[in-house]
Amino acid sequence: MDPIRFYDQLAQYYDLIFEDWDASMDRQGNVLAALLTERLPNRSAPIRVLDAAAGIGTQSIPLAKHGFQVLSRDLSSAAIVRLRSEAEKRSLAIDAAVADMRTVSTTLAQPVDAVIAFDNSVPHLLTDGDVLCAFQSFYDCLGPGGVCMLSVRDYASAQRTDFVHPYGVRWRDGVKYLPLQAWHWRSPSHYDVTFYLILDEQPAASILRVTTQYYAISTDRLLSLLMQAGFVDAQRLDDTIYQPILVARRP
């Protein structure tokens, strides 16, 4: 299943992956705001940030709350609809539209100060060529000295075995949900993730089942592709959020 259908079907439930979505947004927003302010010390406020894989707004919403000017893009139209709704509930102004990471630069009228793509979104691109295309598009989005930040899984430490990861019990509007994901490795470099969501409703339970594929690309290879796209000072940051963050700068 392609990522568009995967995230279209998950959009109304994606927050259930988190034990407390709002708390997670606050934590990530605090980290991102600090990193962006540190890496862009001479930018006048508001700093313009493009979230190139925004999903339902897990990073876009807290950055807007911190006072950044946020432009959110995602290939899932349902995720963008959800993001707009969540931003409106919080009285936040976010420029949200549908776009593919590989062509996201074509959706901007002027350069931004930073591009972000979090929650292991880049490895949905299944070849080095597609990843490089996305990085070149990120580069084109930035003005001189702009920064790119990605959060990705550390596949160097990932076991190449099939497994199931349950998230626990979630409740919404009196309905119990049981989200879990199952990994199946196609090869040492590619694997499928099937997301199951059990809705424990009366009189009978129902199950949502969606699958997508990932490229288990190493952080070293991603840093190399960032430099190939023209970025400089590419580095990996650990101990920030739940995934490594890769940071690079446009000269």
Rg for CA atoms: 18 Å
Task: Choose one word for the global shape.
Answer: globular
Instruction: Return the CATH class of the largest domain.
Output: Alpha Beta
Could you tell me the mean pLDDT?
Answer: 95
CATH topology of the largest domain: Rossmann fold
Instruction: Tell me the span between the first and last alpha carbons.
Output: 38 Å
The biggest beta sheet reads:
7 strands, mixed
> Runs with pLDDT <50, length 5+?
none
CATH superfamily of the largest domain: Vaccinia Virus protein VP39
> What is the helical fraction, as a range of percent?
25-40%
Secondary-structure element pattern, one letter each: HHEHEHEEHEEEEEEHEE
Oligomer: single chain
Q: Which structural class do you get from the secondary structure elements?
A: alpha/beta
Q: How many DSSP-defined strands? A: 12
The number of helices is 6
Beta-strand share of residues: 25-35%
From the coordinates shown, what is the CATH architecture of the largest domain?
A: 3-Layer(aba) Sandwich
Q: Which strand order do you get reading across the main beta sheet? A: 3-2-1-4-5-12-11
Overall structural domain count: 2
